[in-house]
Amino acid sequence: MGLDKVWIVPLATFIFTISAFVISYPLAVAFNHVTPLVPYISDAGSFAPESCIFGQLLNMAALFLALTIYLRHRQIVEFYWHKLKQEGRWRRMSCLILWIGYSSAFGVSIVANFQEYNVLYIHYAGAFLAFGFGLAYAWAQTVLTYQMCPKLAEPIVYHCRLSLCIFSSVFFATTIVCGPILGAPPSPPNGLNESSDNMASFHDKRTVTNGPNNSATNSCITPYLWTKREPNYGYHVIGTTSEWLLAICFQLYILSFAIELRHAYCHAPKLRLVAFKGYGEKRRGITNTAVVKQTPVIQLFGLDTRQPETRVNDGGTSHYIVNSQILPNGVNPSYIPDLENLSVNTLNVVQIDENKQHNNYY
């Protein structure tokens, strides 16, 4: 059991992320939670009901992003180390890049679960992890792939990724400068506070209609409804537009991994169950044994370990029992190093109750 189409994982990351953006944004506009002209991405996912969809889709995107980053790391290690036997510092660099990517995926999850309106500073920390570490991951991955030879894809792929890194760096800088710095909401004049009635003439505030039929039941004031009357409105639009373009560039970068991964596949992980020492001694009539799938006569340490009289059938498959008592002293059948070289397909720990004369698999 395995996955032949590994390229689906980066594609799923792209789909879930873009879906979170394009679904929550029109809902936020319809409920009058944000202005139609390019709000911040997080602003469109701060209030219910769109925040529920935004958070769920971004959580799925964070999961698949982490899987994509891991698959990319494993692909590089398998190709350059296990296949080509290349040595060097690139392995440490790849491991470092792996954890930088994990930090970015963790930041996406924080952005999804800690809405800006509820927990502002934690949300900002998650956004910094998502975008900042995501940009660092993209640059590091690009530099690494330029250094490694032979290449896993055509040179045009790496040139496009380099272009995405350059554009992302520009958008990241303009998002910070034109967003929270130059495009910050103006402070109220002296003598006015957020609860003052005169604030309506200073900043266009509206109520968030969370009640039925767009009523103002349980309404609150939202600071996200920007208008052209705001002094910093121009910088605000530049900052929000840059954030959207930054997110799109990063998602295109992740999607590009599908080009190399279309030639890869992964197999199911192996699980080995090992009984702790002395487990069989604590139960009366129990002997620890290892089950080995039927093979030609197996010689372990010069002994024929197959015992036909203990042959069992498991779903039509014949097995033989390797009795731990006939192995040399101190040898645990679960740690026999030559089993895989002897074409043994399965190695599980079982218990045989000599009193009941049956096998218990676990």
Structure description:
This protein is an alpha+beta fold and 362 residues long. It folds into two domains: 2-185 and 223-267; 280-361, no CATH class. Helices cover 46% and strands 11% of the residues. The chain is built from eight helices and eleven strands. The strands form four sheets. Strands 8-9-5-10-11 form a five-stranded antiparallel sheet, with no helix packed on it. Strand 10 (347-353) and strand 11 form a beta hairpin. Helix 1 (8-30) runs antiparallel to helix 2, helix 1 (8-30) runs antiparallel to helix 7 and helix 4 packs across helix 7. It is globular and about 65 Å long. The two termini are 20 Å apart. The model is unreliable at 189-221, 284-328 and 334-362 (pLDDT under 50).
Q: What's the total number of strands? A: 11
Number of continuous helical runs: 8
Q: Write down the secondary-structure element order.
A: EHHHHHHEEHHEEEEEEEE
Largest sheet descriptor: 5 strands, antiparallel
Are there runs of 5+ residues with pLDDT below 50, and where?
189-221, 284-328, 334-362
Biggest β-sheet: strands ordered side by side in the sheet: 8-9-5-10-11
Q: Assign an overall shape.
A: globular
What's the helix and strand layout?
Layout: E1 2-3, H1 8-30, H2 50-83, H3 90-113, H4 120-147, H5 155-181, H6 199-202, E2 206-207, E3 221-222, H7 233-255, H8 257-261, E4 266-267, E5 286-293, E6 299-300, E7 303-304, E8 312-314, E9 317-323, E10 347-353, E11 358-361
Antiparallel strand pairs: 1-4, 2-3, 5-9, 5-10, 6-7, 8-9, 10-11
Helix pairs in contact: 1-2, 1-7, 2-3, 3-4, 4-5, 4-7, 5-7
